[in-house]
Amino acid sequence: MNDHPLPYCPMQADAGRAGRRRALHGLSAAALGALAPAVRAQEVWPSRPLRLVVPFAPGGISDIMARTVGKALGESLGQSVLVENRPGGGTVTGTEAVVRAKPDGYTLLLVSAPIATNPGLYPKLPYDALRDLAPLIALSAQGFVVSVHPKQPWRGFGELMAAARTAEIPYASPGIGTLMHLTGQLAYAEYGTRFIHVPYKGSGPALQDAISGQVPVIVDPASTSLQPLRAGQLRALAVTHPTRLSNLPDVPTVRELGFPKLEAAAFSGLMLPAGTPAPIVARLHAELARALESTEVRERLVVQLGQTLPGGSPEDFGRTIRTETERWAPLVRRLGITAD
Hints:
Order of helices and strands: HEHEHEHHEHEHEHEHEEHHH
Number of helices: 12
Largest sheet: 9 strands, mixed
Number of domains: 2
Structural class: alpha/beta
Number of strands: 9
CATH superfamily of the largest domain: Bordetella uptake gene, domain 1
Distance between the termini: 97 Å
CATH class of the largest domain: Alpha Beta
Low-confidence stretches: 1-11, 34-42
Radius of gyration: 29 Å
């Protein structure tokens, strides 16, 4: 047996050093891989612009509201809030886009009454809003005004309801499936009236025909009816909001007039994809609550558009959505109303 050491070999030494380098490189990569989630978890949110999806075309009240609140939110967060209009399918298109978005706090959705009525209008929605979306905050609430052309004979809402029990009376609304449409159907279901729905594509054309006398009655949001009412082009008989409206203080509520089951109000708010981390939800909610108290937002939404700004917690808004869904979706199904 040979006990002498082996002679030094440069090639073997280089191979050994290369092997050690590969091993160290592998350990470093593994360490960095293990560290990456921790680094990502410590990233400051938000580190890039947010996206606020509005499932309506530009220019309407929902769009104005989103841009007003989005601007205030962006200023407080130090990041832009980009409004993305995704109309189509009765808000289904835009809603589905947010449901499928990553729940990382960078995608928000403006929701309104269709979130509660669509489960009745569409037999197979590609999502379950109560399951797939997380409530964030209520932005606004607004009652509707039941108005008639000044030449119509009904001087009070009770007279109109009595007349509708004995004869068919057409009424205009901004569209099929809107809460204004459903309010007229609710009058049939609860009080036996015979109002005949005349749907329009938005408040503009509906108001135009009501003002011209083409249709005798219109159920429309207070914000869009305010100008023709003040100009004497329409006469308001009642508001469907639980309380009188600040910009129409002389118009009684349906409850005051003896028709409490006709109370209805539009609502809007913000939601997120389900699973958004709780700290991000809390931060967004705090900043939005602050935005709703700002002078600029209140001037635009309350003074100019006649909205009320309920705010409240995410849980409060979640209860509103559930309550409205449980009220309107079964009525839609019972009356056989479809989106077509």
